Amino acid sequence: MNKATQIFGLRAIIEAIHSGDTIEKVFLQKGLRGSLFKELEQAARKNRISVSYVPIEKLNRLSNKNHQGAVANLSPIAYQDLETVAQNVIDTGKTPLFLLLDEISDVRNFGAIIRTAECTGVNGIIVAKQGAAPINGDTVKTSAGAVFKIPICKVDHIKDAVFLLQSMDIAIIAATEKTDDNVYDVDFKVPAAIIMGSEGKGINPSVLKLVDRRAKLPLLGDIESLNVSVACGAFLYEAVRQRM
User: Fold this and answer.
1) Which run of H or of E encompasses 100?
2) DSSP 105-125
3) Per-residue pLDDT of the chain (244 residues; tens, 9 = 90+)
4) What's the rounded Cα separation, in Å, for the pair 124 and 105?
5) CB 107 within 8 Å of CB 142
6) What residue spans of the chain are helical by DSSP H?
7) pTM (two decimals)
8) Could you give the domains of the chain?
9) Is the CA virtual torsion 145, 149, 155, 161 positive or negative?
10) d(C-alpha 126, C-alpha 101), whole Å
11) What angle do CA 84, 87, 90 make, to 5 degrees?
12) Which element (helix H / strand E) includes 153?
């Protein structure tokens, strides 16, 4: 993370949270105590900001300043409101195509997905406030700058995005092996949002129950799964093929 996208010190981070700065993650020193420390913990929890408790050596590597046991990474982008983005797409008369990422945790996978999404005309990417990979230097680099060209929205939970998009008549299509349906049999010409699950666990079962359609990619070799960014590209380009 570039030092320009960091802030350090308990009071500075508290003020940044209260002022609405987009904070990706807070690193706190293990075993730290005190009223300011508790205030920062409460502010982060209230705003659903990811917190990691780390040894002081880790904080010293993150920042050579007087960090007081607290360092925060700021996002290089401003996240957008999903309802506003979706309504704007609908108002233009275009057929919406959204991408929901359920706890994609690897920053390079995230960056590669963002790059593919921008290339395939995705109208917006949705992630949850917790459990998602941060947008940091590696994400920006892997996305080839696409992170600055496509709306990225954060929601409290992926379920919130599912319910909102469904209320706007946007079909939710899950990329999952837990189905007999093939991706090439799905109609992507309708308003649609594709959900990709995490690298290890896939789509959360509670989210999977809410989707309108499930689809999988045919796997003809011995390996049972694809890298999530590759699978995402295959789904998105099938949508492009049908819409061209």
Assistant:
1) strand 97-102
2) --HHHHHHHHHHHHHTT-SEE
3) 444 478 888 999 999 888 877 888 899 999 888 899 999 999 998 888 888 899 989 998 888 778 889 999 888 888 999 999 999 999 999 999 999 999 998 999 999 999 999 999 999 999 998 888 888 888 989 999 999 999 999 999 999 999 999 999 999 999 999 999 999 999 999 999 999 998 888 999 999 999 999 999 999 998 888 899 999 999 999 999 999 9
4) 18
5) yes
6) 10-18, 35-46, 56-62, 82-92, 107-119, 137-142, 158-167, 205-208, 228-243
7) 0.86
8) 3-74 (3.30.1330.30), 82-243 (3.40.1280.10)
9) negative
10) 6
11) 155
12) strand 152-155
For residues 193 and 170, the answer to whether their CB atoms sit within 8 Å is yes
Q: How far apart are CA 42 and CA 25, in angstroms?
A: 14
Tokens for 88, please give them.
Answer: 């704007």
* Type of residue numbered 51: V
DSSP state at residue 133: P
All residues at 6 or more sequence positions from 194 whose CB lies less than 8 Å from its CB, including other chains: 97, 98, 99, 100, 173, 174, 175, 232, 235, 236, 239
Q: Which two tokens stand for residue 38?
A: 């508790």
Exposure b/e, 212-234, CB count within 10 A at least 16 = b: ebbbbbeeeeeeeeeebbebbbe
Q: Which amino acid type is present at position 199?
A: E
